[in-house]
Automatic annotation (TrEMBL):
Gene Ontology BP annotations: mRNA splicing, via spliceosome
InterPro entries found in the cross-reference section: WD40/YVTN_repeat-like_dom_sf, WD40_PAC1, WD40_repeat_CS, WD40_repeat_dom_sf, WD40_rpt, WD_repeat_MORG1
SUPFAM superfamilies xref list: WD40 repeat-like
Domain of life: Eukaryota
Annotated source species: Papilio xuthus (Asian swallowtail butterfly)
Localization per record: Cytoplasm
Protein name in the entry: WD repeat domain-containing protein 83
CDD domains cross-referenced by the UniProt entry: WD40
Amino acid sequence: MTELELSNLVTIKCKQQVIRAVRFNIDGSYCLTCGADKKIKLWNPHRQLLLKTYGGHANEVLDAAGSCDSSHIISCSTDKSVILWDVATGQPVRRYRGHASSVTCVKFNEESTMAVSGSVDNTVAFWDVVSRRQEPVQVLKDAKDTITSIQVTNNEILTCSVDCHVRLYDIRVGKMISDYIGQIVTFGSITHDGQCYVLSCADSTIKLFDKDSGELLNTFTGHESKDYLLENAINEKDSLIISGSASGEIFYYDLISSKCIKKLLHNLNKPVISISHHPTDSYLLSASEDEIKLWGTSPMEE
């Protein structure tokens, strides 16, 4: 299994105080880093190239995402705002101010016509990025506490919250399924086949659920959450679940057996909170303090 021969290919000091999130773009050729320095940086991590810096938030940037054609970036911040950026010019195109508190997470829909943001104000807001409309198109108010993460597929939205629930919204029929997990859910992913969701919980576990039945299929343990909002990732083959850890390690778990089959050390005792897996290849990005590392089997072929 080549997946286990991962090594650290690149280390980049981002000079952003602390990296709050690292995100591959749609095809995995670029990545975004969100900084406590109020900026977003666009990189080619494979070549260690800083391509552009986006400044305009008034406080720490907590999350960002690239559009499907890589022409725009959407970002969110503790300044309560969501900003739509023009990638090429580096300028903010629109600034959305509908949230009453820090905005923790943001995603585009598949066509990148809509941005979806989650906040410490317990709401999820939908922004039409095509029109000039400033107010949210819709606001979901089902959660009773902070929204920690959002995933958007072509017709579903998965939201996770400190209220120990995950909520799956079916956009086509307008229905919502709420599942009580019993632990604070710090991050949720959906497997590439759309069958399962993978939840990072504050009790240092990751839980794998069947999306349709709500059945708990597997629990993964070994990593340490402490009080960090750890993220998880799923490899491109849906065979491995990946997690950062307060210990500074990255854990690879076998999705079927739930065994930890690989540990990578980013930085001992310096928490790895944000990770991002390449969409189609075995590359992984991890962030710890002010640096990101690219892991993979071999340097990317030109």
